[in-house]
Design brief:
heterodimer, A: 191 residues, alpha/beta, four-stranded parallel β-sheet, 9% strand, B: 184 residues, alpha+beta, Alpha-Beta Plaits, two-stranded antiparallel ribbon, repeat (chain B), 4 iron, 4 sulfur cluster binding (chain B), ubiquinone (chain B), metal-binding (chain B), NADH-quinone oxidoreductase subunit I (chain B)
Chain lengths: 191, 184
């Protein structure tokens, strides 16, 4: 650009987006939403052996109004769904959601009328974390991947364009399973 | 008598703790190994010559309590052979958003085609990419293996293949042998 070369040493240039991303990811306070066995792993992630405070998640509180990240840990029953939505609505922007465990991600093995088949029916999910329950390292893996995502999030008009592009990409995406040309032995793919 | 020292004693505890060994594992930099039989993600194994072990029988899909596995079998022909025997798994998908990593599929597998690895870092931000397809699940080709489709290399008949195949592969020059991870 030119301005970088003319600056004296010791001055670092960056963008507002990068700073906002750094600040947002470095102190992302989670709101616990422990619903089942995944909550036990989430609690052990806060213990001394794993210590989630290393990622700036010092305050692991039950108050949504001071939280940025919602970790939905466990199966969400139909009766719990409005509660979850209300807690999500009480969180201030910007906010993120991790669906921890297969039950929160898709209903898991509980494919029945009582369980919401994936918490993304109720709130937008930023990171799906498989496992039943996922070990604390898996939760950290999801948290770090989310940190990467937050760091590279754009702001303002750029963000709106990014959202449009992502929507376009998802609408025109290639499905993960190849749809084979019909042979005499195949009747189609997918359940 | 020395009660006025009590508030200072508290700092003694703090001072002691500074010299204690820290039990925290710095996860992304330093990864603690899992138990050797930890149920991580799945792997579709191969025979020592590179042919797939999966025969497309769908027993894993039937055993799955979460309905996470989808299998569609296909017929092997002389021109395109993916596994020894008649059938092979043409489509193989595991939905990791449903899979609870219980290992019942591994128990059900009659050819030991499906086993589990110790890998667990599979979080993603899209539901679609968490449906793992056969290409992602297949074990990598080791030295001496050849990507299918190709004819059976470990014996003329199927009995030879299964009975003497592993020994044959071990003795063959450049063969990896059947004692590798892919053939347990």
């Amino acid at each position: 650009m030119g301005i970088e070369e003319k600056l004296p040493s010791g001055i670092l240039l960056t963008t507002v987006e990068q700073i906002a991303g750094l600040v947002r990811k470095s102190s992302m306070w989670p709101a616990t939403f422990g619903l089942a066995c995944c909550a036990i792993e989430m609690m052990s992630a806060g213990g001394p052996h794993y210590d989630i405070a290393r990622y700036g998640m010092e305050k692991f509180g039950a108050t949504p109004r001071q939280a940025d990240l919602m970790i939905v840990a466990g199966r969400v029953s139909q009766k719990m769904a409005p509660v979850l939505r209300q807690i999500y609505d009480q969180m201030p922007e910007p906010k993120w959601v991790i669906a921890m465990g297969v039950c929160a991600s898709s209903g898991g093995m509980f494919n029945n009328y009582a369980i919401v088949q994936g918490v993304d029916h109720i709130v937008p999910v930023d990171m799906y974390l498989p496992g039943c329950p996922p070990r604390p390292e898996m939760l950290f893996d999801a948290v770090l991947k989310l940190h990467d995502k937050v760091q590279n999030t754009k702001l303002g008009a750029h963000r709106r364009r990014e959202i449009e592009e992502e929507e376009e990409r998802k609408l025109r995406r290639q499905l993960p399973y190849p749809v084979y040309a019909a042979t005499e032995h195949s009747e189609g793919v997918g359940r | 008598m020395l009660d006025w020292l009590n508030p200072v004693k508290g700092f003694g505890v703090t001072f002691h703790t500074m010299f204690k060994k820290v039990p925290t594992v710095n996860y992304p930099e330093e990864v603690r190994p899992t138990a050797p039989r930890f149920h991580g993600r799945h792997q579709l194994n191969r025979w020592p010559d590179g042919l797939e072990k999966c025969i497309g029988c769908e027993l894993c899909a039937w055993a799955c309590p979460a309905d996470a596995i989808y299998v569609e079998g296909g017929d092997n022909t002389e021109d395109s052979r993916f596994s020894p025997g008649e059938r092979y798994g043409r489509v193989y998908q595991i939905n990791y958003l449903r899979c609870i990593l219980c290992g019942l599929c591994v128990e059900a597998c009659p050819t030991r085609a499906l086993t589990m690895t110790n890998e667990y870092e599979i979080a993603d931000d899209e539901r679609e990419s968490l449906i793992w397809t056969k290409e992602q699940l297949l074990a990598p080709l080791l030295e001496g293996m050849e990507a299918p489709p190709h004819p059976m290399r470990l014996g003329e008949t199927e009995e030879d293949y299964y009975r003497q195949g592993p020994a044959f592969a071990r003795s063959a020059p450049g063969g990896t042998g059947a004692d590798g991870k892919a053939d347990r």
